[in-house]
């Protein structure tokens, strides 16, 4: 199960998080996300209402836009848009509307909570909407994507589910220039962390790299998200972006 837009969920590194070597609880995650409001505040776990953290969504989208630009994807300075993208764990479409529809002709949406995607049904540029979890998602037969965007949602999947998902994603890439971009929180310690509110797992950088290799994907670029506010003792977990190719 996945919940992208929203899995930044914890406002601070130590709030609601316990360090354990456990696996994700997707049922717990789905129950949590079905209970939140269908707005940006709900998607980002209440972070925008925390004093000093209201700019998190804007900064996140700008960081993603810059990362894509460095990969040659965009609409300025000889960069090129793509024909087809998919937003995995789309929530209410924060990333679809704020990023992907600016660099892609059309966007498919994967989001298990149907109430979040209601507003996207009439959005120009949005095509297929899949109200299923990432672990169960299969693209329409014959679908080919130039860009698969997966953000803040792999924490709801087990290691095996992530590998299986990425293998399926790999088969839908249009050609050797097509990209899978993953953007996730990273554990700030030496072990994975379990969120006892939504059941998600926060992995380490080395955990992700191992899973990418097992899925047969090649890491072509990676960078950290910069610019998030930090007002001691509150600060967000580290966030890293990975660009992968078949």
From TrEMBL:
Q: Which domain of life is it from?
A: Eukaryota
Which molecular function terms from Gene Ontology are attached?
N-terminal protein N-methyltransferase activity
The residues that hold S-adenosyl-L-methionine are 89, 94, 151
User: Which catalytic reaction applies to this protein?
Assistant: N-terminal L-alanyl-L-prolyl-L-lysyl-[protein] + 3 S-adenosyl-L-methionine = N-terminal N,N,N-trimethyl-L-alanyl-L-prolyl-L-lysyl-[protein] + 3 S-adenosyl-L-homocysteine + 3 H(+); N-terminal L-prolyl-L-prolyl-L-lysyl-[protein] + 2 S-adenosyl-L-methionine = N-terminal N,N-dimethyl-L-prolyl-L-prolyl-L-lysyl-[protein] + 2 S-adenosyl-L-homocysteine + 2 H(+); N-terminal L-seryl-L-prolyl-L-lysyl-[protein] + 3 S-adenosyl-L-methionine = N-terminal N,N,N-trimethyl-L-seryl-L-prolyl-L-lysyl-[protein] + 3 S-adenosyl-L-homocysteine + 3 H(+)
GO biological process entries: methylation
Record EC number: 2.1.1.244
- What Pfam families does the record point to? Methyltransf_PK (PF05891)
Q: Does the keyword Calcium apply?
A: no
Question: What's in the keyword line of the UniProt record?
Answer: Methyltransferase, S-adenosyl-L-methionine, Transferase
Region Disordered: start-end pairs: 1-21
| Any GO CC annotation of this UniProt entry | cytoplasm
Extract the CDD domains matched here: AdoMet_MTases
Could you say which protein family the record assigns here?
Answer: Belongs to the methyltransferase superfamily. NTM1 family.
What is the designated name of this protein? Alpha N-terminal protein methyltransferase 1
- Which species expresses this protein natively? [Torrubiella] hemipterigena
């Amino acid at each position: 199960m996945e919940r992208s837009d929203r899995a930044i969920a914890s406002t601070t590194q130590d709030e609601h998080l316990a360090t354990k070597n456990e696996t994700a609880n997707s049922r717990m995650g789905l129950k949590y996300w079905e209970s939140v409001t269908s707005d940006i505040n709900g998607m980002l776990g209440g972070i925008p209402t925390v004093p000093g953290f209201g700019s998190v969504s804007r900064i996140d989208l700008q960081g993603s836009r810059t990362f894509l630009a460095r990969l040659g994807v965009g609409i300025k300075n000889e960069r090129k848009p793509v024909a087809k993208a998919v937003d995995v764990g789309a929530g209410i479409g924060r990333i679809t509307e704020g990023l992907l529809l600016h660099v892609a002709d059309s966007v498919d949406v994967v989001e298990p909570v149907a109430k979040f995607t209601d507003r996207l049904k009439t959005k120009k540029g949005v095509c297929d909407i899949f109200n299923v979890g990432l672990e169960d998602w299969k693209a329409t037969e014959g679908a080919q994507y130039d860009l698969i965007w997966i953000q803040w949602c792999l924490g709801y999947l087990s290691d095996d589910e992530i590998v299986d998902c990425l293998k399926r994603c790999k088969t839908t890439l249009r050609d050797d220039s097509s990209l899978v971009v993953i953007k996730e929180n990273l554990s700030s310690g030496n072990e994975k962390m379990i969120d006892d509110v939504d059941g998600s797992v926060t992995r380490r950088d080395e955990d992700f790299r191992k899973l990418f290799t097992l899925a047969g994907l090649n890491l072509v670029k990676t960078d950290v998200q910069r610019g998030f506010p930090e007002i001691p003792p509150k600060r967000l977990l580290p966030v890293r972006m990975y660009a992968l190719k078949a």
